């Protein structure tokens, strides 16, 4: 007799799937709450680490409904013919929001989340570090300058909501000021008091 | 009627006298024997200590040698690994008390860290493999026998670690206090044959169980014990149950 051995596997996008992804029952919502807690934790880690790998920020229930999107590599496993069902994804997303590992985006709906593979606090540090290391402290930058900088940065492509949260974090410690400029909002980063 | 030593009070005295002499003789004899035995024991003990000290490293590192040593000790009724610390000289001489404790800690480590995915039931081979991975290379490999011994030493802790025979020489280690009934043992054995997957159909076909019996056993393992996971996308069209500890993992 030979069995499928559950082994880690690298996807075409270069992501290393853990061996649990080859376990058929991972794709079923478990009736035993203790077991489901384990399953939810596995999915949360998978989703966040894959999002980080691909720099994906948004996950939608629709991503589990039909193939052909950015999430196929983890929401499906063609080798064992299993997929994460939309209802199960709704449950996992709710748990992630409850644990501050994602937020509903936009607010007041439950079909789409903004993923916190970095928390707003971590983004704030990355943002300030980038402004500092590129010599842009005390200059006025538009949000657009940050989201689509001429030279790609760790902040390239960051969703507006997340950028705003990160700037708010910095503003609280006087390391950023939101400024109204002609074509919308801008921000000035300040060296700030490192001692807080 | 025959009377021992004749008749009368004198005869009675005589009989008592000889009984006393016999008792004295017997005392002396057994005292000599005990002394002899003590001498032998001392001799044996020092020989064993000498042997164990000389071969300590080999005992610790070489599983085959360790096995032979343990067999030798067992055949003469000595357990070198029993009761570390309190066993006193054994533990000190051999350092094997620590060795056994260390192995115990590693077993607990593996059992606890895999508990969430296997519900507290781990296949013996898997346990040996994962414990082996925890250990430094120079410590040498460990065997199933070492693990079984170590689990015995864990027993006084009352943590409920137990080796379960699921049939045909295959063993699993249970690290949660949970009673496994006979039906669950059967389910475990079949799951091991099937790479982890069981279903009502399989239990009915293999064991001739009634549907209700198969369902009850599986539902209990799923809902009450958390020993298996449900798969609603099974190709058969009906639910399948997976016992993660019986699946073949390569991590």
Task: Name a few traits of the molecule.
heterodimer; A: 196 residues; alpha+beta; Arc Repressor Mutant, subunit A; 2 domains; three-stranded antiparallel beta sheet; 38% helix; 17% strand; B: 251 residues; mainly alpha; 10 helices; 6 strands; WH_DNA-bd_sf (chain B); ESCRT-2_cplx_Snf8 (chain B); Vacuolar-sorting protein SNF8 (chain B); WH-like_DNA-bd_sf (chain B); protein transport (chain A)
Could you describe the 3D structure shown?
- The complex is a heterodimer of chains A (196) and B (251).
- Chain A has 196 residues and is of the alpha+beta class.
- Chain A has two domains: 9-115, "Winged helix" DNA-binding domain. Chain C. Domain 1 (Arc Repressor Mutant, subunit A), CATH 1.10.10; 120-189, Orthogonal Bundle (Arc Repressor Mutant, subunit A), CATH 1.10.10.
- Helix content of chain A is 38%, strand content 17%.
- Chain A is built from seven helices and ten strands.
- Chain A has helices spanning 33-54, 62-65, 72-75, 86-98, 120-133, 143-147, 160-172; strands at residues 9-10, 16-17, 58-60, 76-77, 82-83, 102-104, 112-115, 140-142, 176-181, 184-189.
- In chain A, helix 5 packs across helix 7 (160-172).
- Chain B is elongated.
- The longest helix of chain B has 47 residues, at 8-54.
- Chain B is built from ten helices and six strands.
- Residues 83-88 of chain B have low confidence and may be disordered.
- Chain B has two domains: 42-175, Arc Repressor Mutant, subunit A (Orthogonal Bundle); 179-251, Arc Repressor Mutant, subunit A (Orthogonal Bundle), CATH 1.10.10.10.
- Chain B has 251 residues and is mainly α.
- In chain B, a hairpin with an 8-residue loop joins strand 5 and strand 6 (240-242).
- At the A-B interface, helix 1 and strand 5 of A face strand 5 and strand 6 of B.
